[in-house]
Task: inverse folding
């Protein structure tokens, strides 16, 4: 009997190898991928986990034509939550990890700098106008906000589970502030797909969740 693949690991390992082929890197690349997958698979991660990584990479594929350098966007997707503890410096530590590891395997320093810059953008998801790489990555990362109602509910439960150490009142207040800050943005998404397809769904989901939190 054929063994079942360890999905999503098998899919993600294949995607990591595809990046190696694109970048011309092979010798140290597989081990780097194994370490990254181990970070994303840490048991405490209820939302920022392998499934989230796979989802973001799927969405990057959908908006890749908008990016100036899809390679940089894909690498940034791999690293954007590589370090995650629910702390304010998660993105900075993830960016620093990307810089250290990608330089060590011999990638072009300019490409590495762009990857680190993109990872840092996911702190606030507010790229400058015309930053097509940043727009592609941020849209892909926020695309979960436009999920169908059942998937969005699962996402909110997973986020709450990651903050199980925070009491309900504090969580509701903090989460409501995050949702309101997103709703206050002129637009949540910047790519054509995001603006036309994801924006209305995301705003409906955010507004519905905020209403529940403030009830």
Result:
């Amino acid at each position: 009997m054929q063994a079942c693949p360890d999905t999503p690991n098998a899919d993600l390992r294949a995607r990591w190898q595809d990046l190696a082929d694109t970048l011309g890197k092979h010798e140290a690349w597989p081990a780097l991928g194994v370490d990254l997958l181990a970070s994303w698979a840490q048991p405490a991660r209820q939302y920022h986990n392998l499934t989230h990584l796979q989802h973001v990479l799927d969405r990057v594929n959908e908006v890749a034509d908008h990016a100036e350098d899809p390679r940089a966007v894909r690498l940034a997707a791999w690293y954007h939550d590589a370090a995650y503890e629910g702390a304010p410096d998660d993105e900075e530590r993830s960016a620093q990890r990307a810089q250290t590891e990608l330089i060590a395997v011999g990638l072009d320093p300019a490409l590495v700098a762009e990857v680190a810059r993109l990872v840092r953008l996911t702190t606030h998801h507010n790229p400058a106008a015309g930053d097509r790489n940043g727009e592609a990555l941020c849209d892909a990362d926020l695309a979960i906000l436009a999920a169908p109602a059942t998937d969005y509910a699962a996402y909110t439960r997973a986020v709450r589970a990651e903050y199980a150490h925070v009491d309900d009142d504090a969580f509701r207040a903090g989460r409501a502030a995050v949702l309101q800050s997103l709703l206050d943005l002129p637009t949540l998404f910047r790519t054509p797909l995001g603006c036309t397809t994801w924006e209305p769904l995301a705003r409906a989901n955010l507004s519905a969740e905020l209403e529940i939190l403030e009830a």
